[in-house]
Design goal:
alpha/beta, binds zinc ion, Lysozyme-like, 6 helices, 6-stranded mixed beta sheet, 214 residues, globular, 12 strands, single chain, two-stranded antiparallel sheet
């Protein structure tokens, strides 16, 4: 029996409007394959912003506890500061990231990539300070120095690949690399080589300290 061709494959690509591919994945900086929960913690990027840096972080609230609503609440100034003793340390902080990837690979977006999220703080990379201006921040649910889940690498790889098609990304770095001495995330448990291979990137995309690390 002759196999029947699926309708989408038989559709001539010439029939697609030219901007369809990009627009199908990104709408004003919002990624189609993420669940959206808009944070109030963001601002406009400077006019001269060149979005060429992806910054990786990790977070869990309370630290080491996974799967709860606390991180998303924290990024929207809705965390109950009384709920856990640790929350005293972060009380009143107004921060955000563009993305949050849970242990099971679930992807959340909080800020449009066209806007400036508040994840980097005092920072410097590739000769520029204030990395929030030019970067996209991705938080992995986890602990500084601990390992991450295969599902998180899968989601991170797909997300970075799509970001690199849509923005002029030239560098990937950890918070620890853009704020050395002040920040330690994602730390030694993050496998940079795995991400590098997944994306097929050469060494120049990575910080010196992350090259060749497994
Ligand atoms: Zn961080």
């Amino acid at each position: 029996m002759r196999p029947t061709r699926m309708t989408p494959l038989s559709r001539p690509t010439e029939a697609l409007p030219k901007r369809d591919l990009g627009d199908a994945l990104w709408q004003q900086g919002w990624y189609r394959f993420a669940a959206h929960q808009a944070s109030v913690n963001f601002g406009s990027r400077p006019q001269q912003a060149h979005i060429d840096l992806i910054v990786l972080h990790c977070i869990s609230l309370p630290p080491g506890q996974y799967g709860g609503p606390e991180v998303l609440q924290f990024f929207n100034n809705q965390l109950d500061w009384q709920a856990h003793p640790y929350f005293d340390h972060i009380k009143g902080m107004q921060v955000s990231a563009h993305f949050f990837i849970r242990r099971n690979g679930e992807l959340w977006q909080l800020v449009s990539c066209d806007d400036r999220a508040w994840h980097a703080g005092a920072s410097c990379y590739a000769g520029r300070t204030n990395c929030n201006d030019n970067s996209i921040g991705i938080e992995l649910e986890g602990l500084d120095g601990d390992v991450f889940e295969a599902a998180q690498y899968d989601t991170l790889g797909s997300l970075c690949a799509s970001l690199m098609q849509h923005y002029p990304v030239a560098h990937l770095a950890g918070h620890e690399h853009i704020a050395p001495g002040r920040k330690a995330d994602p730390g030694a448990g993050f496998d940079w080589l795995r991400l590098q291979k997944n994306l097929g990137l050469d060494d120049r995309y990575l910080p010196l300290a992350a090259r060749g690390k497994t």
